[in-house]
Amino acid sequence: MRTHPLRHNHTGRGSHRTRYLTLGLCLTAGLALSACGPAHKGQLTVEPVGASADSSETPSSKPSASKSATPSASATSSASAWTMPSVTITNERTDLWQQNDGILSIPLETSFLIKRGYLFNDQTCQGLLNYQSSQETYDSRKTTGDNSASSAKVQEQPSQYPTYTVTSGPSVVDVMPDDSGTLAGYEVAYTGTVTFRDSGNQDVTGYRFFRQIGEQGATLEITLQCAPGNLPDLQTWHDLLSGTRVSGFDAGAMG
Q1: How high is the pLDDT of residue 53?
Q2: I need a labelling partner for 69 at 20 to 30 A (CA). Which of 16, 52, 61, 157 fits?
Q3: In this prediction, what percent of the chain has a pLDDT beyond 70?
Q4: Positive or negative, the Cα torsion across 87, 23, 2, 191?
Q5: What's the rounded Cα separation, in Å, for the pair 92 and 56?
Q6: Between vectors from CA 61 to CA 58 and to CA 64, what angle results, nearest 5°?
Q7: How many alpha carbons lie under 13 Å from residue 43 in its C-beta half-sphere?
């Protein structure tokens, strides 16, 4: 599989060292992947949206034999109220960045989960796109509204970042097209460290976008991470977002 570098520009160095990004996907029990390795082996780990940080449940966990396999009436009613959206996400700004899943260990495209990698034109930045839809997100929409959930999540330290500091934001950005308008969400600028499989923890700087769409049971996250000194300006970041078209629903306003 072809990989692509994230080049670092450091004063006083005459050459670039190649960085390889491995993204391990440790997902819910319904999608067990043997490729999810321990964090100390250098794999980045993306937790499913809504997963508890201290949860000890693994994909191989089985329910206790004493528990009934028949869903309760309330659970059945809740499940029947939600229809999983059929979503397509396309990049209309290939002049700025291109999808390149070679930076991921396991790219994924399913009806409820999309994991993609992107490479910025000059190869000093990499992008990650994570889309997920779930009954859990739909059920939690009334207790955790889209506005508060999106603002909190974009500031939360990602599991694959040993350090993560928000340097500006969260701020509302409303430029991403959906079926009937634009999909608003929250953005931040950040600095931190991320683990590359060939060179350990490396400093990065970037932008991050997050939006929960509760009525659709969906979340969308886009992260741009760059070598220090190579972060594009805010307008270029907004151009990337505005070129990311989400088809399959109308997100509506954040409530």
Answers
A1: 33
A2: 52
A3: 67
A4: positive
A5: 40
A6: 145
A7: 17
